[in-house]
Amino acid sequence: MNVGPEAPVSAFPRISPFEHQFQQHRVEKDGLWKFRSSNQGKRHFFSMEALFGRYRRPGSTVLGNNDSVSYLHMMEDELILATDEEYYDQFNDNTGLNFFDRTTYDVVPNMNAPGARIRWGWLNDDDSGIELTGWWIAQADSVWSADIRSTHKSNPANQAVFDILLSPPDYIFTPIPGYTVQDIGAILQEELKNLASLPLDDGTIDGVSVPYDIDFRIKTISQSWGTNLTWLSTPFVDKKNLKIRGLAGARYMQVREGFSFYGRDSGLVYAEGTTVAATQPDLKVVSLPTGTDENQDGIIDNTGFSEDESSGNTSTTTTVFFLGVNDPVTSYVNNTVDTHLAGPEIGFQFDLGGDKFKIWGQTKFGIMANRSKIKLNGDNIGMITRDDPTDPDRPQALITPTAADPNPNQFSDYQTHTHVSPLFEQSIFAEMNLFDKVPVLKRMKLLEEAKLKVGYTYIVAGEVTRPYESILWTGMPTRGLFPSIDVKREKWSVGTWSVGLDWNY
């Protein structure tokens, strides 16, 4: 009768209770034979992070048609007739003095927004694994107003009366009890401002620049989110404190961006004088924007005439004639782009350090299918101070509203495009065991296995349609000219600092 050990626990070559779940044999390039074994099984990881992102701002492109004449040069002859050549030269020779100048998109402040990221996955015994990441960055809203750079500031005490002067049906001709014509003129001198202009292609050789004297604002928005699934290879560099492995996976990402322009103009032309003969077509005379009250009338940089300290002019002795060419007009343009990016990506990951402190990062390159949807709409884009359809030199630009068509100058456009965009992502993180050294935190069950994680991630995608430059700035509704979509592609990017917790289990 056999009295030896049972078969299931016999020595080699049969099953042994001392064998490991994972065994790896390999020969290094120097000829040394390596053996590795483990009974750990899968090692999972999970992290939650708060993000602090900054989107790429618009470039320095001109808001409007870059090839159109500036308002100063468009009004050169008229300005000299209304004032003198020396006055014109002070604007022309000193680019620091604004005369309804055009602006560029880069005046918009930085677009910052918070967000969150979750990362989960596992590593196998051979250090290969799977990683699933999802992230979201909130919408960043950034607004710039030309009033910021204006040396001429509104008087809050005038606001109630000024609102009446901008209201139908009579506008500036509305009789207001207790206010004389001179009082109304003084309020307009104080409330109308030298803000900015919108250059347009109106079908003429030089184009036009439309001045706005009540409001001129730009708003930009940007928002993004995404997810990616990544396979992590077994490290091809596997040292004690350094590992480098390959990455391969797929990504989906959505970017939403928008741009809006908002402008209000009084529809008035004005100059120093007492009759309509004092005014010039399309001309809004303003003081040199020096930020000083040269004529000591209590109004800095009056609208309607040039302040001149030596002449002793005051608001009581200087008369400005305001000619109502058109009713007050509100203009706006909205352009939004929804971009969907999806495709494969490859890269590598490095891990430097050990369990107590580790620096690691990922570099990824991808080729994304890019599907973009562009929506454009707006109203009243044209030269506001022109209302005579029979004038051969300055014909009416905006269509006159009627009861049947109260918004004849509205427009809209819509396009979709599909193409390929390259994508690059670089991230670097530091993980450290700190909570076991903090008296209160080390007693918290949740933080027993947690590590503090801080880092930075930068994502950039090329050939992305952005809303700022994708507009063809044509504007003369009476001739059928409206702004339309003109796709321009450039790079989009977002950089995020992050701080969070990482668990291994």
Question: If you had to describe this structure to a student in words, what would you say it looks like?
Answer:
With 505 residues, the protein is mainly beta. It has one domain (7-64, 102-152, 193-267, 325-504). The chain has 5 helices and 19 strands. The chain has a 10-stranded antiparallel beta barrel. A hairpin with a 3-residue loop joins strand 9 (237-238) and strand 10 (242-265). Helix 2 (76-82) crosses helix 3 (85-93). It is elongated and about 100 Å long. The two termini are 50 Å apart. Residues 309-315 have low confidence and may be disordered.
Q: Key terms for this structure?
A:
elongated; ten-stranded antiparallel beta barrel; mainly beta; two-stranded antiparallel ribbon; 5 helices; 505 residues
Briefly summarize what is shown.
The protein has 505 residues and is mainly beta. It is 8% helix and 45% strand.
Largest sheet descriptor: 10 strands, antiparallel, barrel
The total of helices stands at 5
Output the strand order for the largest sheet. Answer: 3-4-5-8-10-13-14-15-16-19
Query: What is the averaged pLDDT score?
Result: 88
Cα radius of gyration in angstroms: 34 Å
Helix content: under 10%
Principal-axes shape call? elongated
Question: In oligomeric terms, what are we looking at?
Answer: single chain
- Bin the strand percentage: 35-45%
Low-confidence stretches: 309-315
**Number of structurally distinct domains:** 1
Strand-pairing-aware structural class: mainly beta
Cα(first) to Cα(last) distance is 50 Å
Following the backbone from N to C, one meets helices and strands in this order, namely EEEHHHEEHHEEEEEEEEEEEEEE
Q: How many E strands?
A: 19
